[in-house]
Please model this.
Amino acid sequence: MPEKPSAAVPESSVVVRPEPIDSAKYSVTSRLQAAGLRPAIALFEQAAETVPLPRQPQPIVIADYGASTGHNSLLPISAALPVLRSRTRPEHSILVVHTDVPDNNFTVMFKTLAEDHDTYLRKDAATFASAVGRSFYSQIIPSNSVHLGWSSWAIQWLSRIPGPIPDHVQVAYSADEGVRAAYAKQAAHDWHEFVAFRGRELCPGGQLVVLTMALDEHGEFGHRPLLGALVDVLSELVADGLLTEDEVRRMCLPTVGRRETDFLAPFAPSGRFEQLSVEHLEVFNADDRFWMQYQVDHDASAFGALWAAFVRASVFPTLVTALAGGRNDPRSAQFFDRLEVGIAERLAAAPEQMQIPLAKLVLTKQRRTK
Ligand SMILES: C[S@@+](CC[C@H](N)C(=O)[O-])C[C@H]1O[C@@H](n2cnc3c(N)ncnc32)[C@H](O)[C@@H]1O
Model:
């Protein structure tokens, strides 16, 4: 895999404010992320069947951690609602709390909830939507109040950048052992915190379903052709004079995949942590939907374009902050366009299935003993 230009970069530890993804484009390109959702949704439906429910007038609370545009939240919530309704009266209120960082585009999210034809709000008159604009690396919902929790494609984002990645944008592909160790330490800390705070927020007996990026049993992060193309185009943009070496060296994606053992670490040795236990844990390879489409239509350009549009929406907003002028740098539009075109061309020239290792987990909070 090609490498970024390397040079000594001062150590730093920067708080991550996840860059708002390109909301308009994310909803249309996130079909890929929807691919891994289905197996996790089945777990969410099972959780809706089993979690203890409050008596009226106390609402049933569903929390959605890292909601973004809300587009990919519609399916899991819509799947859980009929299951809950089979256990409750139609007038029993259900409150859905969508959470994300303060910079998230909550306007787009509320429009999605109001207008998308898949919105759960049109399906159940006693279900209400709300939002919390705070990082999930702290307690953001009252203790013992959440009956069902959902988090998809979100907790791979670290709370802090432990330091620059001198030879890549994604730490999984860095050859620097020190950098890899620093990211692993941060990933362990963040997972520990995320679980601890959800342990407080869940009701006794409540369940949280998590879908996130993982490392497979060989430590493989996947996405190799895509990330290889991305780093290759960045080098080309330096050679062409659009970017400086320093800017590219500053670019990094503060995201991690975790191994099964990483997910289990906070629960060792007793199997319990903050009254939570791991009910289910599985690392699996999600379908590459763009590859599946390519198998049918053999349209290599479309394959490259779909993957490139997806990374444009989900990760370019983070990379652009490394430009000297940040996201308002006058070169940013050109940066976005050239990076997207370059990635699309490379993937179209040699279409290859993307490995997408994901983990799905169910955490359960201990029930109250009578
Ligand atoms: C790739 S999107 C996933 C959106 C949606 N859940 C899905 O499945 O497609 C990741 C979201 O996680 C949010 N996120 C990242 N770190 C976060 C944090 N510390 N607290 C809350 N949300 C966070 C990002 O802002 C972003 O909206």
About this structure: Confidence is low (pLDDT under 50) at residues 5-13. The two ends are 58 Å apart (CA to CA). The longest helix spans residues 177-201. The pocket of S-adenosylmethionine is lined by residues 18, 21, 30, 33, 66-68, 72, 99-101, 104, 135-137, 152-154, 157, 159, 314 (CB under 6 Å).
